[in-house]
């Protein structure tokens, strides 16, 4: 583990002293601690910065697994359904990680102001990026964590440090990729707008052809770019966000399985149950009972890390 990762892990552990999720700074940052490996968990990632400080974690996007080691950063380009699992964690050396929300509008404004760095030889644009955390961003993140102890300063310093992190990202190895994502009519930008639209309209009767038309692409071009961003097909994406929403309704609003299925766009309760079981590993009733037991065992800590509402749209 690098010295930077050790410093970050120490700062996280100072706040996250027990296993669970810790939303801080008005939920702009969330800390995670786990003393044991976890089973695979479907969830949604939004535009932000995910950092592993200690332990290890696997993140599956589509059919690709991204192993996250101490000191590594992931920056998803859009709203992505993923499957995460902590693979290395013990009580003495727990998994410690965090998530920081990024403001895509601020990033777009700064991308115009800041000269684009020259791409290094061999650089490739990828839709999902895992890189090593540099010292500048690491120090800025630690200063964010320190604001948790000085709430009277957080209101004024939080946006300043968020801006610094955004500037450092644009100047760093992800700068060219981020600018490509932000380009107004790039294929990635078009797909990102479709993903934002789907998050608001997933209960409608939607076909891949409808989405391609909305994106102003041919069907084959749309499917190609959609899969390059999300790792899955448009209809697989739609199914996953419907099931994640249904799970949240049953867990948080105590809606029964049949009503949840209908609410998210399913016409067949049996189809909903089959697809839910395939995604979450248990039928709806059993899965929600297990989740509520987990919530009860960690009642002092927020336990909604699997389903995080979208905060930023493009």
TrEMBL record:
| Keyword annotations from UniProtKB, A to Z | DNA-binding, Transcription, Transcription regulation
Q: Where is the HTH araC/xylS-type domain?
A: 192-290
Spell out the protein name for this chain. AraC family transcriptional regulator
Pfam families with a match to the protein in the record: AraC_N (PF06719), HTH_18 (PF12833)
Q: Which GO terms describe its molecular function?
A: DNA-binding transcription factor activity; sequence-specific DNA binding
Q: Report the superkingdom from the record.
A: Bacteria
**Keyword Transcription regulation on entry:** yes
SMART domains noted in UniProt: HTH_ARAC
């Amino acid at each position: 583990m690098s010295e930077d990762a050790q410093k970050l892990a120490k700062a996280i552990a100072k706040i996250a002293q027990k296993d669970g999720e810790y939303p801080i700074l008005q939920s702009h940052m969330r800390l995670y601690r786990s003393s044991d490996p976890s089973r695979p968990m479907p969830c949604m990632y939004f535009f932000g910065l995910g950092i592993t400080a200690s332990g290890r974690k696997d993140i599956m996007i589509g059919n690709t697994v991204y192993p996250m080691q101490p000191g590594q950063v992931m920056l998803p380009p859009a709203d992505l359904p993923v499957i995460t699992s902590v693979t290395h964690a013990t009580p003495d050396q727990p998994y410690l990680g965090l998530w920081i929300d990024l403001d895509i509008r601020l990033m777009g404004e700064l991308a115009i102001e800041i000269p684009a760095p020259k791409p290094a030889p061999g650089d490739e644009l990828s839709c999902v990026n895992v890189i090593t955390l540099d010292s500048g961003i690491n120090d800025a993140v630690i200063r964010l964590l320190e604001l948790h102890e000085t709430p009277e300063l957080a209101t004024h310093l939080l946006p300043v440090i968020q801006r610094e992190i955004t500037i450092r990202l644009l100047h760093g190895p992800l700068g060219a990729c981020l600018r490509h994502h932000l380009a107004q009519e790039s294929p990635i930008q078009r797909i990102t707008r479709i993903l934002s639209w789907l998050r608001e309209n997933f209960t409608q009767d939607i076909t891949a052809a409808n989405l391609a038309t909305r994106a102003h692409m041919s069907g084959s071009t749309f499917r190609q770019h959609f899969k390059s961003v999300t790792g899955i097909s448009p209809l697989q994406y739609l199914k996953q966000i419907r099931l994640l929403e249904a799970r949240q309704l049953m867990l948080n609003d105590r809606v029964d399985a049949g009503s949840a299925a209908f609410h998210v766009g399913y016409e067949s309760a049996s189809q909903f149950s089959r697809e839910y079981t395939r995604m979450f590993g248990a039928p709806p009733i059993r899965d929600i009972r297990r989740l509520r037991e987990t919530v009860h065992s960690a009642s002092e800590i927020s336990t909604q890390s699997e389903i995080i509402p979208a905060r930023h749209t493009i």
